Structure formats: C-alpha cells, structure tokens
Amino acid sequence: MTTVLAATGVSFRYDQDIVLDDVSLSLDKGEFVALVGPNGSGKSTLLRIVLGLTEPATGSVELFGSSPRQLVDRWRVGYVPQHLRLAPDLPATVREVVAAGRLARRGWWRRPRADDRAAVDHAIESVALAEYGDRRATELSGGQLQRALIAKALACEPELLVLDEPIAGVDARAQRDFRDSLVHLVREHGAAVLLVSHELGAVADDLDRVIVLKRRVLFDGTPSALTETGVSLGIHADDLPLWLEELQ
User: Fold this and answer.
1) Model-level pTM?
2) Domains in the chain, CATH or no CATH each
3) Nearest CA to 220 among 59, 48, 25?
4) pLDDT grade, residue 85 (50/70/90)?
5) Alpha-carbon distance 45 to 36, whole Å?
6) For residue 178, is pLDDT > 80?
C-alpha cells in the first residue's frame, strides 16, 4: 500500500499552551479517514502542519515521500479550509471559480484542453451544482458556495483531499451529494481523503478509519470499533465532549 501522508511525533504549542503532543498518523492511497475531536483539540493546527502551512515544534511530516514545502506537484493535494469566503464583489461564475482549482495541474500559462473542461464539469456535477455553472458565485447560498469550493478542490483531481469542516450548514440532500463525490474520488480515482467534521452521519458507512484527536491521538481505528464504545457518528449539536473527556 502506498502511503500518501505520514506524520511522526508532531508537537506544537502557542506560547505555553500545548496544542499537539507527539501526534503520529498516516494515510494510504485509497483510504477515507475522518479526524474528529472537540473544539480546541488541535485538528485545524494539525491540518496546517501536514499541508506545510505551519512548521511543527518537533516531529516530521511527509506528503508523497517529500516534505510538504518541497512537494513539487501541488495539484496532488486538494484542500478545503474552514470558513473560506469569496470577495463580495467577485464577478466570477461558479464554473470560473471551479476552473481556478484546475490551474495547479494544468499550469496557468496553458490554455484549457478538453480534459480540463471535462474535469471541471465533473467536479461541478459531483456536488450537484450543474444547473448553477453560469451563475455568479456571489449569488449562491452559503451551502451552495461551500459545495462550489469543494468542487474547486476536486477539479485538480487530487491524490489527497483534505477538508476542514466542509459541510457545516449544508442540507441533507447536499450532504448526500457531497458523500457521493468523496466516495467516487476514493473508489474510482484511488485518492485518499482526510475529513475533519463533527457530522459524520453522511459518510459513516464509507469511512475506513476514524482518528480521535485531543492534543494527542486517543483512538485510531475502524468506525465499528469506535461505535462499540458507545460513540455515535451522527449529529453532535455542540461538540463531542462527553465521551472524549473519558478517553485518556
């Protein structure tokens, strides 16, 4: 099995506050993994470290066998950050926003080819926005815009897709479309997916592993092994506090 992401002994702190403590995890090609934990558990910080946006205090990270900051083919990694917004006066259509996600793979100096247009169309369809392709992105609802930004990440056909709370506030139908797009990416393209979310109900049956983080890794195993401990992978209105507090 090909390892696409490996973090070993990663630690990080803000001043005297320990955010991550000796965290190790890995993802293989074709794996669908969820990363969960309470607010302040270090999830977003860990994502920034594995993507090379933040340096760890200790430990190391490899993406496709290279340091994140030395990865040449950046298109191999797709990233949907939390609370990403577009400029309110941006005149771009949904199709243009999604097509921008293709640039890392195509190269900004090359004209779009048939395979580029097909990838953009497929990404838009996979999040059920085909009828909105020519609409201005600023005219979309919050949930529709989030789906457009997910499509933007899908357009480059990444080998690793990292998503930080991508479906917060998205309705049930859109969650199903979102689930289908991720399953397609994993099963048909062999990509790895690392999903941070408090809401795993839409994808619970498709996950290979769940990693529970609270400064350090408290659990790393199958969804069935986690549910056997009494943990629900469905909706958590506030957080995941009760059972996490009991995990040491």
Assistant:
1) 0.85
2) 3-246 (3.40.50.300)
3) 25
4) low
5) 13
6) no
